[in-house]
Design goal:
The chain is an alpha/beta fold. It is built from 11 helices and 17 strands. The protein has 3 domains: about 70 residues, Alpha-Beta Plaits (2-Layer Sandwich), CATH 3.30.70.2580; about 80 residues, 2-Layer Sandwich (GMP Synthetase, Chain A, domain 3), CATH 3.30.300; about 170 residues, Rossmann fold, CATH 3.40.50.150. Helix 6 packs across helix 7 and helix 9 runs parallel beside helix 10. It starts with a strand and ends with a strand.
Length: about 350
């Protein structure tokens, strides 16, 4: 609803300077929108400016004039889920609301505590309202488990769907969250590792999933060969789609099978770099990774879980000891960091290690 109010009228060329002055004098009415027509801009003011304030405008903007104008009120965007649901749910329920959601394409995934269960429909629909690009809201119904690293998910709002297209650093991925593991929280890691790969390298991604590491590497480098391995047939089917979708068929070879068996049968001694993103069990496949590396050595990107009380240094020592049991040696830990919290007092970490 338009509101008649006092404002400063200036030619468009002087709009930026006028807004700076009005803000400096603390005159801008934050409730109203700045308006414009073909030739002029109208800046809403909280009150009729004094002579001294007018002189400040005129000293820098010769055509500044005080004018009454019909201003639109600012549309106030609801910033948080708690703000949107305030007054609809009890205060103790508001306090228990999730602070964030994982957004994968058009799907939002949230974790609901037991006390929120009876309010899941209200919460789910509020998330749809807050996120205009989200069409489905899923609630986690179990922890990640099993060989394929899957969790049970329940639709609590929107379309009953677990398939979407996720975009990340210029790449697109078909994802079915019910059939193949995918975490948007690893977006930076996908990009970071891809940026480290050099032209001419051969890379083995031992637990490739739908291909976020493999596809980004292939898109980032002209001369590279990536063998993307996964034991989940659904993940491999989506990986094949993603390879075609991103037009990297000549660089990425999807392979269905157990990582250790695949390396033993066809990929010993060929890799410059091995990616091991299977935090639950990666330590069991260190020997396979060592076999995959060239005789002269290479880099392993190792992902694991650690208790919050455990220093990263102890993880490095454990990894180095396992590598030595496999007949090779960690020449240098190139990089290490905590990637994300995965449970109370538990973190996922990454080690980049030069192996000889």
């Amino acid at each position: 609803m338009p509101k008649k109010s006092v404002g400063i009228k200036v030619r468009k060329i002087n709009a930026g300077k006028t807004i700076v002055i009005a803000n400096k004098l603390e005159l801008v009415d934050k409730v109203l929108e700045i308006q414009k027509d073909r030739n002029f801009v109208y800046v809403p003011l909280t009150h009729q400016p004094s002579e001294d304030e007018l002189e400040e405008f005129r000293s820098q903007v010769a055509d500044a004039k005080v004018s009454n104008y019909s201003f639109e009120e600012r549309v106030r965007r609801v910033a948080t889920l708690a703000e949107l649901l305030a007054g609809k749910l009890a205060p103790h329920i508001i306090a228990a609301l999730p602070h964030s959601a994982d957004i994968v394409g058009s799907i939002a995934i949230i974790e609901l505590s037991p006390e929120l269960e009876s309010h899941r429909d209200v919460i789910g629909n509020a998330i749809l309202k807050l996120n205009k690009n989200v069409r489905t809201v899923l609630a986690k119904a179990s922890a990640v488990s099993g060989t394929y690293r899957l969790r049970e998910l329940r639709v609590i709002a929107g379309e009953p769907n677990t398939v979407t297209i996720h975009r990340e650093y210029g790449c697109k991925y078909y994802v079915d969250l019910a059939k193949a593991y995918f975490s948007p929280r690893l977006s930076y890691e996908h990009h970071r590792v891809a940026s480290l790969v050099r032209e001419g390298e051969t890379v083995i991604d031992l637990f490739a999933g739908v291909g976020p590491f493999a596809v980004q590497i292939a898109r980032a480098r002209e001369d590279v060969k990536i063998y993307a391995v996964d034991a989940n047939p659904y993940a491999i089917e989506f990986l094949k789609k993603n390879v075609r979708l991103n037009r990297v068929e000549n660089k990425v070879s999807p392979i269905l099978g157990d990582a250790a068996e695949v390396v033993g049968e066809k990929m010993c001694g060929i890799a410059d770099r091995v990616i091991m993103n299977l935090p639950e069990k990666a330590i069991e496949f260190v020997c396979a990774s060592c076999k995959a590396l060239r005789p002269a050595g290479g880099v392993i990107h190792f992902y694991g879980f650690a208790k919050a009380s455990e220093p990263l240094g102890s993880m490095e020592v454990r990894f180095a000891g396992t590598v030595e049991q496999c007949g090779r040696k960690v020449e240098k830990v190139l990089f290490s960091r905590l990637v994300r919290a995965t449970a109370p007092y538990e973190w996922q970490f990454v080690l980049d290690a030069q192996i000889i």
